[in-house]
User: Fold this.
Amino acid sequence: AQSVTQPDIHITVSEGASLELRCNYSYGATPYLFWYVQSPGQGLQLLLKYFSGDTLVQGIKGFEAEFKRSQSSFNLRKPSVHWSDAAEYFCAVAIYNTDKLIFGTGTRLQVFP
Amino acid sequence: GAVVSQHPSWVICKSGTSVKIECRSLDFQATTMFWYRQFPKQSLMLMATSNEGSKATYEQGVEKDKFLINHASLTLSTLTVTSAHPEDSSFYICSARALGQTYGYTFGSGTRLTVV
Assistant:
């Protein structure tokens, strides 16, 4: 069965530091992968998605993610974190042949000034 | 850009009453809408998928008689929590997808339901 794992429940970084949020997926074929961000009490906003092609995907707010098939990973990165990036981040994979998404358990990002 | 409005943003109700949550696509026609439930500090769990004009498809373990979903128009889907109990307290989020926009989901801002 398809699944998504986000190993880090909570990450704390200083403002201006680089960031990498991990995401591992379990899927037989090429997955459709997503990263979403959720601010407290809010819905989800799409940061970026990968379907095919270039394995380095650029998203909004300065985020990027790299698809690595050999590692079954789709890690999210940002070179310099801003205090406004503090939020919950979810990795998701689309279920094969459906339009449903499976979400990881999320990583809560805390940013210190 | 695509906007989905979810209302109310929060609601408190008494145990045994019913609550209706609305999800509207404001600037596109949502042929498919999804309803999720999110417990505190946990991930989103898909409850059901609804297509305009047809019955919703519920995920395993979701009580269809308790969580009534209606998708009567291309811009509106509703989730009614019937005979609510404290264990139904949660954050409910909808997302919508337009025809032809495979995997192009737009999420609402969520509804915090508290049953007392």
